[in-house]
Each structure stands twice: as structure tokens, then as C-alpha cells.
Amino acid sequence: GKYYLSESALKVGFYGSVGKDQSTARCSTITQDMDLETLSSGSCKGPAGSEVSGSTVDTASSLASSPVHTPIFGPTSQPPLPSTPPHILQTQSESNFSCRISHRLGGPEGLGPSIGPITRLKYSKSLGLLSAGTGSGTVFIVHPLTPDPHVEPCRGHTAKVIDLEWSDPAHYLLSTSLDKTIRIWHVTDKPGARKSKCIRVLHEPSIGVCLRFIPNNNNIFLLGTMSKTLKFFNLSTGKALVKNKVRRVVICLAWSGSGRGLYMADGGGKVSVLEYETMTHILKANGSLVLSRGSAVTSLSLSSPSPTSPFEYLIANVLHGAVHMLKAHKTPPFAMTPYRKFPIPQRHSSIRSAFHPSSLTFATGSEDGSVWVFTNPADSPTPEVLKLQGHQGTVLNVSISADGCIASGDEMGGIMIWDYLTTRNESPVTPVARRGCGESRGGSTSSESTDSNS
Length: 454
Description:
It is a single chain. By secondary structure, the chain is mainly β. The chain has one helix spanning 7-11, and strands at residues 2-4, 15-20, 25-30, 44-45, 51-52, 87-90, 98-106, 118-123, 130-134, 139-143, 150-154, 161-166, 172-177, 181-186, 197-203, 208-214, 217-225, 229-234, 240-245, 250-255, 261-266, 270-277, 282-290, 297-303, 311-318, 322-329, 336-343, 353-355, 362-364, 370-375, 384-389, 395-400, 406-410, 414-421, 432-433, 440-441, 445-447. The strands form ten sheets. A six-stranded mixed sheet has the order 28-29-30-31-6-37, with no helix packed on it. A hairpin with an 8-residue loop joins strand 30 (370-375) and strand 31 (384-389). The chain is globular, with a radius of gyration of 21 Å.
């Protein structure tokens, strides 16, 4: 089938998809606050009443009247998964890595059901802080290194948080929301002074979709908007510096390791690379790669584990049910080539993945309620896959800290933090206490075989 992202549709927050088989054409839409209904007829009505069969519809008006069920950043059509003790499914009996659940935050025992889904998770590069954006608009700062993790709410947004970005060191946190504002938060980790505050609010005429600081410069950041622009801002003054026009709405961004290249992904299944002029902040197109025509790319992450290698790697979640790994040159023109493809359960939800900071191991959310961890997938034809289970719904976001801890957030507002161990003799799962309810939970391990190239 074909998936698309309509510009006017995303303004009210939904993806649309059109699929076709031998007998019927199926149209389905995914919105923030509505439910899904499959249209079983053989055609869909276009904006002027024309019939569209098995093709892409580019307007929101033809879809707005269809009741739908899955929010971009919210509950999916599947009922919540039954509450089960967190455990791990391992693909090999002997593993170089093992994981255990360390803390359970959120859900009925923690952050509470009123916060909505976890729309974004982001570890800071320093200080070990974790930020969490939610469907209610509240941003949470989690201090997971203390015996009893401290969770600090940062309130101000009036709609769902779309993206978060840390400065390095982690003194500032940027957040963008569907309320068309960008908030700049000053964050402190000093004992007894854990009080983050909003120091500036930037109002935009269009919704900001993604945020990134310029590499090695905490005073300039980049914002991708719904109006097909990439805007550079000065953090100190809050003023826009340069506006670059692009052909499509940018869904996610990733800087190259050198900071001279910018990778961007859109709702049409394409990843493009732009060359960045540091003095003028001008972006020049250098090429693109279509991963799956018409299927939205929901996440983009980069890893450059070897300073001597001429290549770096990208992973991209695509809405057709796979994580694509790309190989790219570190120097202009930053040519990209497809490298690997890893099937995962992702057909309806905006799911994100993340690389380990110092290797090609990566983790991704999924619609089966598990966190999928692929360990060093570039080195083996059949990489080891760990499935971390314990969430009660679709896992929308993951983030990996500098010391290897994996944080995952789900559609029910639950956040889980997993310790990442590297010793073979360690037990794969250690019983822990679920924060908020005080009961001890154990884990179990089973073995299965998975071929990533199937």
C-alpha cells in the first residue's frame, strides 16, 4: 500500500494511508483525538467528489469526515496489553549484553494517566538527565540516578509536545508543541536546587515539528516547521537568523558527525541530505534516498562510532513496518546507500528509535508493546535481538544514555528505564521493585530465532 503525509492534515495531527489489493481500495486515517474506521468500499471520494481508487489523496477535507482511531502520539486501535511483569525475550542463549528493568515510572503508579502518551524521550549527553514530553503538554525532567528517581514537571505548553532537544552540557532544554510555541527551559541538577524554569517562549506562525542544536554551538538551534521551512534561531535573543525553504514538511532531523551535513526525513518516505554553511547558515541540497515511496519516516538517528572510518550510519523508522539502516560518507556530498533492513511491528504509530552513543547497537519501540534492541547489527548477518517487555501498550519512544541505560515510553503514559549490562556472567534479569506500588517483580528469559533480513 501507499502511505502519505498531507501537509494540511498534519496541521490537525493525522497521518493518512491508502492501500489497495485485487478487489478493494482501503483508506484509513490516524488522528490525534479520533478513532479509526476502515472504508471497505472500492473507492474514496476526493475533495471535489471524484473517486480515488488505490492512489494518494492530498487533502485533509476528504478525510476529515471519516471517524478514525489512532492518534499520532496516542493510543492505538489495539486494546491495552495485559499488565505483566517486565521480562526479556532473548534471541540467543548466550549474549554479550543483558538487560534488567531498573525503575518503573508513570502509569497508574507514577506520573498518572492524565498526562497522555509519552510523545518524546530524550537523554541529555551529560548529567544523566532524561526529558519526557507528553500528550498533555507537560514536560518532565527525570533524575534517574538517585535511589528514588526524582520526577520534575515543567508546565507551560497547552497542547501535545512534539520534540525535545538538550544543549551540551545539559543546562538548557528546548521543547516544541502543537500550540505553536517553542519553550526554552533552564535545567539544574544541583542537590536541593532541582527547579527547572522556562526562561523564554517563542511564538511561531506554524507548528514546529523538530528541533536540533547546531553541533558544538549551544547558542544556535534549528527548527523544522509545518510551513516547509528550516529556521535558525539565536538562543540568547530568541530571534530568527535565517530561514531556508524546503520542498516537503520535515518530520525529523539528524546532524552528521562533522556538523557539515544535515539529514532530514519527510512524510513521503524520503531521506535527504543538505550541506550546511556555518558562516551564513545556508543549507544546500546534496541528494536524497527514497526508502519507501509514500510511507512516512517517523524517526531518524545517526551514529559515527569509529573516528577513523570514512562512513557513518543512519537508522530510520518507516511506517511500513521496518527500520532501515543507511550508510553515509562523512564528507561532502554525504552520499547515502541502503545497508540493512529490520522488520518490526509498526504500521500505524509514530515510533522512534535511538543508537547507542558509542556503537551501532540501537533500540526501537514497536506496536507489540516491546522494546526491540538490535546489538551490533552491522557486524552480523543475523544480529542478536533483545525484546524488552513490560509496557502496557505501544512503545512510542526510546532513548539511550551515555552509559547505556535505555529509557522507553508508551502510549499509556508509562516510562521504563532499563540498565544495560555488558557482562556475560550477569543474570539477564534481576528482580526489582516497581516504583510507586512497592511490589517486587521478577523476569524471565526465553530463546527464539530471528533473521533481520527476512
